[in-house]
Amino acid sequence: MSYHNSVLLNQSVEALVHNPDGIYVDCTFGGGGHSRLILDKLSEKGKLFAFDQDSDAIQNTIEDFRFTLIQQNFRFIKNFLRFYKIEQIDGILADLGVSSHQFDIPERGFSIRFEGPLDMRMNTSQPLSAKEIINTYTEEQLAEIFYYYGELSQSRKIAKEIASKRNEQSIETTDQLKELFKNTIPQHKQNKFYAQLFQALRIEVNDELSSLKELLTQSYELLKPGGTLVFISYHSLEDRLVKKFIKTGLFEGEPERDIFGNWHKPFDLVSSKAIIPAENEIMENPRARSAKMRIAIKRNGEKK
After folding, report:
1. Looking at domain 9-100+208-298, what is its CATH homologous superfamily?
2. Residue 179, helix vs strand vs coil
3. Could you read off the pLDDT of 154-206 as tens digits, one per residue?
4. Global pTM?
């Protein structure tokens, strides 16, 4: 079984690497598919740093003097690159979301297909798991998570059902959680509902949206003018943050404008619309179906 099938592999790396002698960062190493192709395009002077907080990813490390794997959350990118005396980079790639490996291991608790513990931790050394959230968060906290991170309109009803059941016994497995809604959600809607429910829990467990915001902000600071940003996202919450930041440098609100009505645009878009996988890639790798890739070039910093 493959550790992870890299989505939009050739298109992303082709867009990323424009200087063979440059310094690049793969923020989501996983199985190393993107990293290996990046290294193929680099000269002996080039360097590649990769991040992955999942300890399982170390089994895929690459023996190459140009390559360094950093076992940390990408939200700490600036600090760790500074440790290696790297101040600026030529390009940064992030393939967000859950790896095929994480989905395919029942013990990790990410998949709605297998029974496993309610875990969902990308970094298995951290204390907070989905089980802790389900069994200790208040009903109001659960409702907010399901509404904002799962985009579930019946979030209060869902939270109430969980709170009621956990009073009888602790909810500890993915099947126990799914069983609560087996008779209340129409069968043809169950897979989508469970996917949204699990997404909400996973985002909370791993603090994914805050991590993404920190990564985007630091990416702009690290990139050289003319440097390339390539982000692949798998749900609308991620994609909206990436799209907004590329356009305005902000995550909320509108940018300040000058007297002529213009604002400083941090990036130039390579494509005005998100790039999506071709039909043949989706057939070979169904998880690519929801992928959206955005590519942008850092501007020089002058107001335009």
Report:
1. Vaccinia Virus protein VP39 (3.40.50.150)
2. helix
3. 999 999 999 999 999 999 999 999 999 999 999 999 999 999 999 999 999 99
4. 0.93
